[in-house]
Design the sequence.
């Protein structure tokens, strides 16, 4: 179905505008509003959710929507392939992918707003209007990013969510650590965005358009260019697409905290836990992956780019999971887990598993938001203690928190039938079949697979340390009660984490041969869709060959599923053996030298800090010294020399009049001699 | 019998140079003044010789003016030398060096 | 045609009025040498110079010296011994303006002076000489007018008889002056020898007859240049200037550095263009005499500005700056060999007129400071703007204008000079060196001029001063000069036109 | 007549303020400055021009009157606005008003002089952007120096004297070089040009360029003039390595002067580059594109690196201005609609943003009496709103989308990435873009150290919230920044309309 209908889609901009209004209202009048400004945000996000659902239903009804809202600017610009003119616009693109994402974002945003009532308001925080305003601004930016219909608009809101992230991480600005973490988060992502911006500029300059969809999209233009065998900026079209795609990927790696730009995310846990749940788990971090999905058609043109995405994803999944194993802080564990899970999504997308990637994105959004909010609840219970070694035994004292958290944990670990299992399995399966033909992908798959074990392990280590065993501190014995504002979001998310996996049970569908892979249908244009932005369109473009084990796709699938489930269970069981005891102890010595390596996050922070402070800063200081001494020295030297020669020149004036007469006559005679010689007067 | 004009010129130049030499070497203000007078008179020699040479009276006339002006100059000069003496108790022209550089 | 016809000698009226004023003042002096009727004396001098100014302006406006049916054309007086053309009138205007300003300022400056009538009469007499120089058209009249200027000047510099500085300055000025005029007159005698005449056009006409006396003529020309260099305080005859300006009473410094310099330049402009037309002279002496001016201009402006940069005494800084400006104006002669020579000379003349306001004003401010009893150094001037904002503002105007920074009159003259030098460089690329020297020196001058502004406006006073008096005469003169310096910027057209016409009168 | 009124109001206002009592000077100047602001906004609304002022464009509010004529060239009062100059005029008027407001707190001595100078500088700046005759333009261009020299010198910090003189002399030398180059060019154009009107000169340049001068061929002359003028403007912009006057000037200048210096004075340089070098010399732009782009990139990166090494807030912003101006150069040399248009947009945008940054730093300084990053922390605790605006401004500086800085930088990057004129354009652009990372580095670092963290500042008094008027003016600026960021077409269409003839003039 083509994207024509307006109808309910006319309200689409309101999805983003409502939170913007909430932002303005809260910023200006927050202090005077009840609940310190929470209400405008709640109302606005509820409204956004409502409209998003309407959009979702409308797309389900077979429609899609693509329109330009506002022309930011336009002008003449000769591009390498396109026409002479270029227009930079703000537009709305509602297709299955964005409709789904809108629902996720607005739902999590709403739940986090509600949760904040219990988490922030109840604790007597100061600066709450600021908090809610920033949340509103974030929600606005994120939603606008999601329905952006072009790369530039996406970049703009991509940056804005980065700003909100910065502000919210630094919410407790009176501490030393929060502002530092905020700075780091923004800087590292900025570094990625630097490449992204080059990518945007390059794509715009190459194709004369930045649109995602339709005939005028850069994807179509790139396809044409490749078909025509064009030369772009001195490269053949294929290479240029790879280069620009990888440049954009820089932004993705930064935002989605992929290696090597992952270091900011654990630090970002300095922000309020609600923020971590919303921004650093469910939504903003997803922006990177979402962007890859959004312009998947472009990446599909470049197998090289895809392979790199897959490999980085697989590597990050394993890399982060291992670090999560040794963390003491519950939020830190979740942070590394987030990095790892986004690695899976990248892996999925990188092997052409568009559906798998989006599926994991969907599931992860819910279960990770759940886990973070659960952790938030635990933190409330524990009077803002985050060290798991000081917890224990909370299972009985806070059953709602425990069970919902457990649901999230099962989903995260990938235990059947919780949502995480389905999507992770699909990712791994897609990677496997490609990997059988492509060694690089196989390596990525292997890393992803190993990571499953670690995931199971750290997840349940966290669960056991937090909720099981004996309380290991006074607060753990007598936890602070939590209210409905905390429980309701947990329950909602707990249910979602349990069931969302059912929307795309690919193995079941394959085994029973029934059409229950709803998400795949959804993304494949069974309902509403926009031309070119469908799974099979992508699938056709992706030039990967697929292989199978044992000659049968089903066997391969079962093998893959069994393998990952087995590893997950193994991980969980190891955790159970080690930590599900009344008095768990650290098992550092078992890891030997690896322990300190992991505790120090593979020294990733160290080298990045060295890059900033050990290299760039001294370089800057050296430049400054150079500037002060050499360049400014020349400037000042000129004046010194002038004044020095001035001092010398004025000494001629000795004050003795006879000398004057002599100099005068001498000067005169000198002139006479020169002129006489030239004129031949003495001849 | 006429003397060639170049001899007059040589004479005047000699006088001029003597005057100049005096200016450069004498430190007594009065001698300085006299040396200048010599130089002026060197010019007068020239003027009159050339007037004769060219056969017009302009030079002679101008020589008269020069003499008159030289006298006026000396008058002013002496006045200044007087106040010089009053202030510095000396008429050595190298003594007043309060202002230099 | 004019309604009535004045006799020819009346064309010299600006100079004659000054002469008359001088005589009246002399008369007054001889009747009552110790008169302290300041208003009467200063008033007479001012009235005389303003009358001279008015007549000169009237003549200019009426078209004396200008060609064309309805104009009077150039007026010859005494068979070409004097000539009244645009050039003469232009410089008479400059001289009478400066004289008027100096006379007004002297009203307060000479408050406690005993022989006031003598002072004013000498000033006006010197001004008469300068006016005469502007109109002189023969080496005889030039020499006489020159001495008429110099002799009172020597006396004026040394007029503070009990002030060692003044006397020393007078002595040095006099000695170098006497030497220079001896050289000058010897030069005249040689020129006479070579050409047989002293009237400028006749000299030019007889150049061809100089024949084998080319060497003598060349030496004579060089000696004439020496005399001019003395009057304009150019290298190497400049040595008197720093001391004379520093030691002399400040109004006299103003008078000498503005009017006397202008007189020296008009002399040079007329003599070298009229008596020694470039091609004819070069044919005889085998050297292009503009080269001398190229060299002198560069050395003069460089020496003046460099020496000024590190001076400690304000007046001495202004003295050296005055030498530097002489270097700028010399470009007017240096560029004569080129097609745009008249424009360059015109620009140089514009500079002299503007300089008449801004430099006079600057020295008068020093006079004001001396009147207040402020010491001679830059430090002594620190923070004066707090007590005397208007005078200090005026001084800032003068300084920036001297530096050629807009929005002040000095901008036009300096940049037009620069522009036309570049223009002239089309024919003689060496002039680019001059232009470059102008740039370097201009930059340096910015440094030391702003140093004074800094002292006045930026520095804190080193000592507490009481309220400073506001002497009417000095203030009036300074403010008038400042206002003119500013007003000249928008109203530059008449000045530019007059200067270009003046230049056209002798060039091309 | 509108432009004349605009300038006249500011000039007369300056005089009135100068003589007004100190007590009311600030409010009086504010009231006066509202008039030009309102007028300029009216001009903005009533703008009916099209095309480029120099290239046969339809000028708005044009007026012309003869001024003077010298050597066959006429100089006139010639003003008018096009899409490039109008936004800058509005920017000037607004920033001056806000600068006056932000002076209320810190300026507590010699107020009337201070505000008088600010209004004076406003008049001159408006003149710079509206003048279309070279001499007229140059008068305004140079006249800006004096008030800025005094503002830095009198009300500046501890090393103000050094900074003021350095600023003054350095930029003046540059102007002299530029002036010489330009007049050589004009003379080189020969008879095809009869005035110093910029449109006439630009037309002649595009019609075939100079015939030659100083014995140089036309092309060589044009190239030399291009280089000379580029160097001249490079100091003003400033471009590395001619930038060292800027940090000194900024650090020592009082906050309002810094606002004007960064906000408008730097734009004079880039505006002039656009008007002269990049309009009149398409061939030279093409020939020297690579070295110029290299200089631009070096300015961006090197300037940003220097900013990174600083601990003085003002120095940080000062060096980052060097960096931002590098973007402008890059955009200009790209010679595309977006490149040059973006560069112009960046002039306005950077004016607003750097104005906001200096204002914020000033507010903090007023409260803390220190600007050292190391001396304070947690200022957000005491002055939340001001700090909030500061953070917004900082992010604007970093090029946050929906703020004007992003629009400007994006236009520039987009314009230069695909530039056909500039070889290796993609590489240069990518290198320059790294500036957006470094800028984030030093600004975030500074923010973290100063406004965040536990409150700590050693004072013997209680630091309180920022005054309402300061916050209000900051918010006005922030509003403008966001407005332009969201709707760049408010001025960008106007700009590109005036840019297009330039690009096409190059025959590209």
Sequence:
């Amino acid at each position: 179905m083509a994207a024509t209908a307006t109808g309910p889609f006319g309200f689409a901009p309101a999805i983003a505008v409502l939170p913007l209004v909430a932002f303005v209202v809260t910023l200006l009048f927050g202090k005077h509003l009840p609940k310190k400004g929470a209400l405008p945000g709640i109302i606005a996000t509820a409204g956004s959710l409502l409209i998003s659902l309407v959009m979702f239903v409308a797309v389900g009804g077979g429609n899609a929507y693509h329109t330009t809202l506002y022309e930011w600017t336009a002008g003449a610009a000769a591009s390498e392939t396109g026409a002479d003119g270029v227009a930079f616009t703000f537009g709305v693109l509602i297709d299955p992918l964005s409709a789904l994402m809108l629902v996720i974002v607005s739902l999590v945003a709403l739940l986090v707003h509600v949760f904040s009532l219990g988490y922030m308001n109840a604790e007597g925080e100061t600066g709450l209007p600021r908090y809610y305003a920033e949340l509103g601004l974030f929600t606005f930016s994120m939603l606008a990013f999601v329905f952006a219909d072009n790369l530039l608009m996406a970049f703009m809101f991509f940056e804005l969510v980065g700003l909100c992230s910065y502000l919210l991480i630094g919410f407790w600005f009176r501490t030393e650590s929060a502002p530092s973490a905020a700075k780091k988060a923004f800087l590292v992502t900025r570094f990625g965005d630097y490449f992204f911006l080059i990518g945007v500029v390059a794509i715009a300059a190459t194709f004369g358009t930045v649109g995602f969809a339709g005939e005028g999209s850069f994807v179509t233009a790139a396809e044409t260019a490749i078909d025509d065998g064009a030369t772009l900026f001195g490269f053949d079209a294929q290479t240029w697409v790879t280069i620009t795609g990888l440049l954009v990927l820089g932004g993705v790696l930064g935002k989605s905290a992929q290696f090597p730009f992952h270091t900011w995310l654990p630090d970002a846990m300095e922000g309020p836990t609600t923020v971590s749940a919303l921004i650093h788990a469910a939504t903003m971090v997803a922006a990177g992956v979402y962007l890859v999905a959004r312009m998947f058609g472009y990446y599909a043109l470049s197998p090289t780019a895809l392979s790199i995405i897959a490999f980085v994803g697989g590597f990050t999944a394993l890399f982060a999971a291992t670090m999560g194993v040794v963390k003491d802080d519950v939020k830190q564990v979740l942070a590394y887990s987030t990095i790892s899970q986004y690695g899976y999504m990248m892996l999925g997308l990188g092997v052409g598993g568009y559906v798998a990637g989006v599926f994991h994105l969907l599931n992860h959004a819910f279960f990770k938001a759940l886990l973070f909010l659960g952790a938030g609840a635990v933190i409330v219970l524990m009077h803002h203690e985050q060290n798991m070694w000081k917890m224990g035994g909370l299972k009985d004292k806070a059953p709602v928190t425990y069970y919902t958290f457990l649901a999230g944990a099962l989903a995260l670990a990938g235990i059947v039938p919780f949502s995480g299992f389905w999507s992770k399995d699909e990712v791994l399966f897609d990677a496997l079949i490609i990997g059988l033909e492509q060694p690089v992908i196989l390596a990525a798959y292997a890393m992803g697979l190993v990571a499953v074990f670690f995931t199971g392990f750290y997840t349940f280590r966290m669960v056991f340390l937090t909720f099981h065993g004996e309380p290991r501190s006074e607060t753990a014995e007598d936890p602070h009660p939590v209210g409905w504002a905390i429980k309701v979001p947990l329950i909602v998310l707990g249910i979602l984490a349990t069931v969302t996996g059912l929307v795309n049970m690919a193995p079941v569908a394959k085994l029973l041969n029934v059409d229950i892979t709803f998400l795949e249908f959804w993304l494949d244009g069974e309902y509403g869709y926009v031309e070119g932005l469908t799974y099979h369109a992508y699938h056709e473009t992706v030039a990967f060959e697929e292989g199978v084990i044992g000659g049968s796709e089903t066997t391969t699938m079962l093998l893959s599923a069994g393998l990952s489930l087995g590893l997950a269970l193994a991980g969980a069981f190891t955790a159970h053996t080690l930590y599900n005891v009344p008095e768990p102890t650290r098992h550092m010595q078992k890891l030997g030298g690896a322990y300190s390596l992991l505790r120090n996050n593979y020294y990733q922070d160290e080298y990045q800090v060295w890059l900033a402070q050990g290299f760039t800063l001294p370089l800057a200081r050296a430049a400054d010294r150079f500037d002060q001494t050499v360049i400014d020295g020349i400037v000042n030297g000129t004046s010194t020399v002038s004044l020095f020669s001035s001092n010398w020149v004025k000494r001629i004036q000795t004050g003795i009049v006879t000398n004057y007469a002599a100099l005068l006559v001498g000067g005169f005679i000198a002139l006479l001699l020169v002129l006489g010689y030239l004129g031949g007067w003495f001849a | 019998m006429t003397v060639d004009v170049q001899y007059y010129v040589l004479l005047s130049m000699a006088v001029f140079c003597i005057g100049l030499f005096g200016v450069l070497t004498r430190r007594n203000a009065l001698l300085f003044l006299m040396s200048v007078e010599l130089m002026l008179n060197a010019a007068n020699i020239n003027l009159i010789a050339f007037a004769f040479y060219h056969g017009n009276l302009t030079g002679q006339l101008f020589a008269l003016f020069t003499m008159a002006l030289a006298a006026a100059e000396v008058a002013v000069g002496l006045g200044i030398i007087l106040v010089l003496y009053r202030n510095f108790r000396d008429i050595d022209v190298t003594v007043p060096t309060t202002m230099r550089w | 045609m004019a309604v009535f016809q004045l006799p020819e000698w009346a064309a010299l009226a600006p100079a004659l009025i000054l002469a008359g004023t001088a005589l009246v003042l002399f008369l007054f002096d001889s009747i009552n040498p110790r008169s302290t009727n300041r208003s009467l004396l200063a008033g007479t001098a001012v009235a005389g110079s303003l009358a001279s100014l008015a007549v000169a302006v009237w003549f200019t406006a009426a078209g004396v010296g200008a060609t064309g049916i309805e104009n009077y054309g150039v007026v010859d007086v005494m068979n070409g011994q004097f000539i009244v053309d645009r050039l003469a009138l232009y410089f008479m205007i400059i001289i009478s303006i400066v004289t008027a300003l100096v006379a007004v300022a002297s009203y307060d400056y000479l408050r406690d002076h005993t022989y006031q009538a003598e002072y004013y009469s000498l000033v006006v007499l010197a001004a008469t000489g300068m006016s005469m120089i502007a109109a002189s058209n023969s080496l005889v009249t030039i020499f006489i007018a020159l001495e008429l200027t110099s002799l009172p000047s020597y006396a004026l510099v040394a007029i503070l008889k009990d002030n060692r500085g003044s006397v020393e300055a007078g002595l040095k000025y006099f000695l170098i002056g006497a030497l220079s005029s001896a050289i000058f007159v010897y030069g005249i005698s040689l020129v006479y020898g070579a050409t047989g005449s002293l009237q400028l056009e006749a000299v030019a006409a007889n150049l061809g007859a100089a024949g084998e006396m080319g060497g003598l003529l060349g030496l004579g020309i060089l000696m004439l240049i020496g005399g001019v260099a003395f009057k304009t305080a150019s290298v190497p005859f400049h040595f008197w200037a720093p001391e004379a300006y520093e030691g002399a009473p400040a109004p006299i410094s103003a008078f000498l550095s503005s009017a006397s310099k202008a007189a020296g330049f008009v002399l040079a402009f007329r003599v070298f263009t009229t008596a020694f037309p470039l091609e004819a002279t070069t044919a005889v002496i085998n050297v292009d005499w503009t080269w001398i001016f190229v060299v002198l201009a560069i050395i003069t402006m460089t020496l003046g500005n460099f020496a000024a940069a590190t001076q400690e005494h304000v007046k001495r800084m202004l003295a050296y700056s005055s030498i530097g400006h002489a270097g700028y104006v010399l470009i007017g002669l240096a560029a004569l060999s080129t097609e745009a020579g008249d424009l360059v000379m015109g620009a140089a003349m514009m500079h002299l007129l503007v300089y008449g306001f801004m430099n006079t004003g600057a020295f008068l401010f020093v006079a004001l400071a001396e009147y207040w009893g402020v010491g001679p150094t830059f430090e002594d001037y620190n923070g004066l703007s707090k007590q005397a904002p208007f005078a200090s503002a005026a001084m800032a105007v003068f300084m920036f204008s001297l530096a050629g920074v807009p929005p002040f009159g000095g901008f036009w003259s300096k940049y037009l000079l620069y522009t036309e030098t570049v223009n002239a460089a089309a024919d003689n690329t060496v002039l680019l060196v001059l232009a470059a020297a102008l740039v370097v020196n201009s930059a340096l001058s910015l440094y030391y001029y702003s140093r004074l502004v800094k002292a006045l406006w930026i520095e804190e006073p080193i000592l507490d001063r009481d309220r400073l008096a506001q002497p009417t005469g000095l203030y009036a003169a300074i403010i008038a000069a400042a206002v003119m310096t500013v007003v000249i910027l928008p109203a530059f057209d008449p000045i530019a036109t007059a200067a270009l016409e003046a230049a056209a009168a002798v060039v091309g | 007549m509108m432009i004349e009124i605009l300038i006249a109001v500011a000039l007369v206002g300056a005089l009135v303020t100068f003589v007004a009592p100190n007590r009311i000077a600030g409010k009086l100047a504010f009231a006066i400055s509202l008039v030009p602001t309102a007028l300029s906004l009216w001009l903005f609304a009533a703008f009916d021009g099209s095309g480029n002022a120099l290239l046969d464009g339809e000028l708005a509010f044009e007026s012309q009157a003869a001024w003077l004529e010298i050597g066959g060239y006429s100089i006139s009062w010639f003003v008018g606005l096009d899409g490039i100059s109008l936004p800058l005029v509005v920017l000037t008027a607004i920033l001056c008003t806000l600068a006056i407001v932000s002076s209320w707190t810190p300026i507590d001595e010699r107020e009337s002089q201070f505000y008088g100078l600010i209004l004076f500088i406003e008049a001159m700046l408006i003149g710079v952007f509206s003048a279309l005759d070279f001499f007229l333009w140059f008068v305004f261009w140079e006249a800006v120096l004096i008030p800025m020299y005094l503002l830095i010198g009198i009300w500046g910090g501890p090393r103000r004297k050094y900074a003021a003189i350095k600023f003054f002399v350095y930029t003046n030398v540059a102007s002299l070089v530029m002036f010489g180059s330009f007049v050589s060019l004009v003379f080189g154009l020969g008879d095809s040009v009869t005035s110093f009107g910029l449109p006439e000169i630009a037309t002649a340049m595009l019609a075939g360029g100079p015939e030659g001068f100083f014995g140089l061929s036309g092309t060589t002359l044009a190239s030399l003039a291009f280089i000379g003028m580029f160097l001249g403007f490079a100091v003003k912009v400033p471009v590395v390595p001619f930038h060292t006057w800027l940090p000194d000037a900024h650090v020592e200048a009082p906050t309002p002067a810094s606002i004007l210096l960064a906000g408008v004075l730097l734009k004079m340089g880039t505006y002039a580059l656009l008007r002269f070098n990049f309009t009149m010399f398409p061939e030279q732009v093409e020939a020297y594109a690579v070295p110029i782009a290299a200089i631009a990139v070096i300015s961006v990166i090197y300037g940003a690196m220097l900013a990174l090494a600083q601990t003085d807030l003002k120095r940080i912003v000062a060096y980052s201005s060097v960096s931002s101006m590098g973007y402008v150069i890059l955009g200009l040399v790209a010679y595309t609609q977006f490149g040059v248009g973006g560069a112009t947009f960046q002039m306005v945008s950077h004016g607003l943003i750097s104005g906001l940054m200096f204002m914020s730093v000033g507010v903090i300084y007023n409260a803390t009496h220190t600007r050292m990053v190391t001396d304070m922390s947690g200022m957000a605790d005491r002055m939340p709103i001001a700090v909030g605006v500061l953070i917004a401004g900082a992010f604007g500086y970093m090029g946050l989308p929906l703020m004007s800085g992003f629009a400007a930088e994006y236009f520039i990057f987009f314009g230069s990435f695909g530039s056909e004129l500039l070889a290796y354009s993609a590489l240069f652009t990518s290198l320059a873009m790294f500036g957006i990372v470094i800028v984030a580095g030093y600004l975030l670092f500074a923010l973290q150290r100063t406004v965040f963290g536990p409150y700590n500042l050693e004072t013997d008094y209680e630091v309180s919230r920022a005054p309402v008027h300061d916050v209000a003016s900051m918010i006005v600026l922030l509003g403008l920044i966001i407005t332009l960021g969201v709707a760049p077409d408010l001025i960008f269409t106007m700009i590109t309309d005036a840019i297009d003839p330039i690009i096409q003039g190059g025959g590209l």
Notes: Residues 332 and 344 of chain C are 5 Å apart (CA to CA). The two ends of chain C are 26 Å apart (CA to CA). Chain C touches chain A at residues 171-172, 175-176, 179-180, 183, 214-215, 218-219, 222, 226, 235-237, 239-240, 242-243, 285-287, 291-292, 295, 303, 306-311, 320, 444, 447 (CB under 8 Å). The first strand of chain C starts at residue 75 and ends at 77.
